[in-house]
Fold these 2 entries.
Entry 1:
Amino acid sequence: EDKVVQSPLSLVVHEGDTVTLNCSYEVTNFRSLLWYKQEKKAPTFLFMLTSSGIEKKSGRLSSILDKKELFSILNITATQTGDSAVYLCAVDKGRGRPLHSGGSNYKLTFGKGTLLTVNP
Amino acid sequence: DAGVIQSPRHEVTEMGQEVTLRCKPISGHNSLFWYRQTMMRGLELLIYFNNNVPIDDSGMPEDRFSAKMPNASFSTLKIQPSEPRDSAVYFCASSYALTSGRTSTDTQYFGPGTRLTVL
C-alpha cells in the first residue's frame, strides 16, 4: 500500500527560527513530490520535485528530494508568524509522461501534514 | 480570473439525504480534481478529470459517491445517500496540462472548499 508519512505532526517555534519538515514515501511508480501550504482555507502549491539533489527555492522556503532514500525536506529559514500553517506533502504516481513534461495522467497521495505554529 | 469556484461553501444535512457539490474550474484549465479533507485521513484525492474525462476514480470511497464533468466549466460531486462519516471539507482544484510535449504548468489551484456536515 502506498504511504506518505510526514514528520513531525506538529511544531511550535519562535519567529526567526529555522525549521525542517520531513516527508518520506513508499509508492509504486513514483513520478514527483509536491509540497503545499494550507492555512485556514485551501492548500496552495509550493514546490514540485522530480530529480534528486536539486534544491528548489522560493524566498525563505527551499526543498530537496532524495529518491534513493525516498524522502524530501522542506526548509523555512527566519520563520515569521505568517508561516504558521499546515504543510502538506504529496506524491504523484501517475503513469506515462509526467505532468511537467506534457503528460496528463496524475494521481496524488497526500501525507497528513505538519502543523507549524510560529509564535512572535 | 475569479479562481476555482465552489458551492455551497457550507452544507448541513441529515443522514440519508442527497448532497451535490459544485465546482467551476479556472477558465482554460483542462484538469479538475476533487479532494476530501478530514482530521483523521488528511487530504485525499477522490477523482480527477482530464479534458472532461474521468481518468482515475480509485480514490472514490464507495458507490455512494459519484462525480461528473459534463463540460469544461462545470463539475459535480454527488453523495447519495449521505452518512455522518462523509462529514469533511471537499476541495475542488484545477490545473492546465499541455498534451504536446512541452513543459506544462504543474500547479493545482484549489477552490475555497465546501464544508459538509452530515447529522
Entry 2:
Amino acid sequence: RKEVEQDPGPFNVPEGATVAFNCTYSNSASQSFFWYRQDCRKEPKLLMSVYSSGNEDGRFTAQLNRASQYISLLIRDSKLSDSATYLCVVNTRNRDDKIIFGKGTRLHILP
Amino acid sequence: DVKVTQSSRYLVKRTGEKVFLECVQDMDHENMFWYRQDPGLGLRLIYFSYDVKMKEKGDIPEGYSVSREKKERFSLILESASTNQTSMYLCASSAPTGSYNEQFFGPGTRLTVL
C-alpha cells in the first residue's frame, strides 16, 4: 500500500455542486494531516489542516477517520476558482518526522 | 507576509553542467526542503535541512547535493546535470518540529537540461 494515496481525477464538477475526495494513508502512526491546494503552474499552498474532530472553513470541510486511515475534503457550492489540484499531506511525528505529499487530485469546476 | 524566493523561474542548462538553485526564506524558519515535481509522480523530496550546516537525504538524493551555510538560504546543486533532471524544483520552509509545521513554498524553478 502506498504511503499516501489519492484518486488523481480529474473530477469534473458543475459550478454550485458539492464535491468530495478522500486520501488514504498507510502509517497508523501519522499524526498531522493537511490539505494543500496547487493552482496550475503555481506552488502548493496550505488550504487547511485536518483535526481529529473535523473542521470547517467556509465552504470547505475536512475530516479525519483514524480507524480507516483516511482524510477527506468536502467542497460545497463549488466555484470556478476552486479548480485546482488538491494535495493531501501526512506528517508522521516519529524520529524521522516524515512529511509525505500525495500526488494530488485534479478538480475542474465547469461553468 | 511570509516569503520564499527562488533564484530563477526558468533555467536551461546543458548536460554535464553544474547547476545551482538558490532558495531564500525570510521567516526565520529552521526547516528547509527541496522537492522536484513531475507529472504523475507528484512532489518528491530530494534533501532537507533542520539547521544551518545540517542536511538530510530525502527520497531521491542521487545526483544532487545541498548547502546550507546560513539559516535563510538553502541551495540545491546538480553536480553534473542530466536530461532526467529536467523538472520543476520547489523549495519550501517550515517552523521547527513540534509546532505547527505548515510548509511555505517558493514559486518554483522550471529546469530544462538539454
